[in-house]
Description:
- InterPro entries: KR_dom (IPR057326), NAD(P)-bd_dom_sf (IPR036291), SDR_fam (IPR002347).
- Belongs to the short-chain dehydrogenases/reductases (SDR) family.
- It comes from Pandoraea terrigena.
- GO terms for molecular function: oxidoreductase activity.
- It is a single chain.
- The protein is α/β, with parallel strands linked by helices.
- It has a single domain (9-240), classed as NAD(P)-binding Rossmann-like Domain (Rossmann fold).
- It contains seven helices and seven strands, in the order E-H-E-H-E-H-E-H-E-H-E-H-H-E.
- The chain has helices spanning 18-29, 42-54, 69-83, 106-128, 154-174, 201-206, 216-227; strands at residues 9-12, 33-38, 59-63, 88-91, 136-140, 180-186, 238-241.
- A seven-stranded parallel β-sheet has the order 3-2-1-4-5-6-7, sandwiched between helices.
- Helix 2 (42-54) links the parallel strand 2 and strand 3 (59-63).
- Helix 1 packs across helix 7 and helix 4 (106-128) runs parallel beside helix 5.
- The two termini are 29 Å apart.
- Residues 13-14, 16-20, 37-41, 65-67, 92-96, 115, 140, 142, 186, 188-189, 191-194 line the site of NADPH dihydro-nicotinamide-adenine-dinucleotide phosphate.
- NADPH dihydro-nicotinamide-adenine-dinucleotide phosphate is lined by residues 13-14, 16-20, 37-41, 65-67, 92-96, 115, 140, 142, 186, 188-189, 191-194.
Amino acid sequence: MATNFQGKVAFVTGGSRGIGAAVVQRLADGGATVAFTYKGSKAAAEDLVARIQASGGRALALLADASDAAALTQAVNDAAQQFGKIDILVNNAGVFTLGSVADLALEDFDRMLDVNVRAVFVASKAALAHMGEGGRIINIGSTNAQRIPFAGGATYAMSKAALVGLVKGMARDVGPRGITVNNVQPGPTNTDMNPAEGDFAASMHDQMALKYHARPEDIAAMVAYVAGEEASFVTGASLTIDGGYSA
Ligand code: NDP
């Protein structure tokens, strides 16, 4: 049964492609009005808005680099102004640059921290100004927060592990307001970031109980659960959906 998001307003970072686009579509299918950000994929973002509008939904694409705190805050405020509130925030935008600590450029380290961690703080802070009772903050973390079984992923793993602590503390900050805060931690998921036919796919499947990539829609389904009414008692949690990668 599709979760009912009628009357809800959602804001999704990085909604133009991959997991973010599937989350936007899933929430819109449930009746939510969805604002989402993109950085480089303008055409894909506009296509997604057009598809949602064609099926009777409401969606808005906003250009905002997640590493630009002012732009991201402005996007959240613009969405709240246009739609009146924000009920559901999904911090999805993320980047991954492979490189050992000895080799990774400091700029790549900073970019992963800016997009994967700092932007989550920035968007959450901005959205909380427009969020009431029953609100939901959901971050897309990663199974790599708990297991990183290959070299070159230290900074990415650190960035996603940071979210584990963040949601525990934030859940306590906003619990009294009736708002929940959680991470959804995917394993290998078929997107541009991690194609199911990519060079590393087979070695990932070797690590898994289920030897295939998730579809972005599989991850969006767990996001929809956490965003929904039935998950009202779930908070401060990091929920892994990884085909047994960390089992
Ligand atoms: P993709 O690279 O396929 O898509 C990334 C999305 O994020 C795009 O919509 C992109 O927008 C957006 N984005 C990236 N950087 C920025 C930025 N600076 N500002 C705004 N938007 C940005 O990634 P996935 O869909 O695979 O990943 C989504 C999330 O899931 C990430 O947080 C990732 O770490 C996490 N994840 C992914 C896994 C996987 O196997 N795919 C596994 C575990 C976690 P645009 O194209 O417009 O720039």
